[in-house]
Design goal:
Mean pLDDT: 89
Number of domains: 2
Structural class: alpha+beta
CATH architecture of the largest domain: 2-Layer Sandwich
CATH superfamily of the largest domain: eRF1 domain 2
Strand order of the largest sheet: 1-9-4-3-2
Order of helices and strands: EHEEEHEEEHEHHE
Largest sheet: 5 strands, antiparallel
Number of helices: 5
Number of strands: 9
Distance between the termini: 20 Å
């Protein structure tokens, strides 16, 4: 379905805000868009501003018997997001990987590396099949290497949740490896969209995994 020319699509963007900064962010959102209506539903805490702007706030993890305390939905969410939880991050793309144990946005143990998987070839016939086999072999090698490193890094702490990121197919294949079978029953949190994992990418992912995920929809134009 195409948008009606008189009603163009509203811009949507995503931000990650720590529990400690959430109240301040909510106040600034209200100052920019007007008085807020606040509701709590299955999707998260929803802020609806006077000018029509909306913000959907999602906790980084479930309460699991440890709900946040506070006077309103936003304060309770901020307290929940500020609780120390230990996460296992597995970020993998065709250009490299990072695995880490994170708590309160801090990296407790980590391993990163590069191991490329070639892109699809424009070749045809037998050359195309040969290229596809090479890609599959490289992907298998990457998945195996990442799983081996993750098993060592994750074992340094008692992790409560697993956070995949990057190429979701490669991440799922890695988590399905026998080396990581002990984490099969560990709850998964929302996947992170990240570029090729490098030290700076890993540092940001560690912070984002422990932050409130906010989806902001601009007011109607």
């Amino acid at each position: 379905m195409t948008d009606h020319p008189l009603h163009p699509a509203r811009a949507v963007r995503v931000a990650f805000i720590s529990g400690a900064r959430l109240q301040g962010w909510s106040q600034r959102f209200s100052e920019a868009h007007g008085a807020l209506g606040i509701s709590d539903d299955d999707d998260g805490v929803r802020l609806t501003a006077a000018d029509g702007a909306e913000a959907l706030l999602k906790a980084p993890w479930p309460a699991d018997g440890r709900p946040g305390r506070g006077a309103d939905h936003v304060e309770r969410l901020a307290v929940l997001a500020s609780q120390p939880r230990t996460l296992a991050l597995l970020l993998v793309r065709r250009g490299g990987y990072s695995v880490a144990v994170v708590r309160s946005g801090e990296i407790l143990a980590a391993k990163s590396g590069t191991r490329s998987v070639q892109s699809r070839s424009a070749a045809r016939g037998s050359a195309q099949k040969k290229s596809a086999r090479r890609r599959e072999e490289q992907a298998d090698g990457l998945v195996g290497a990442v799983a081996a490193h993750a098993a060592i890094v994750f074992a340094t702490q008692q992790v409560e949740y697993v956070v995949p990121g990057g190429d979701r197919t490669l991440a799922e294949l890695t988590l399905a490896r026998p080396e990581l079978s002990r984490y099969a029953a560990v709850p998964r949190l929302a996947a992170l969209d990240v570029p090729d994992p490098r030290p700076a990418v890993l540092r940001k992912a560690a912070l984002d995994a422990c932050a409130v995920r906010i989806q902001v929809t601009d007011p109607p134009s």
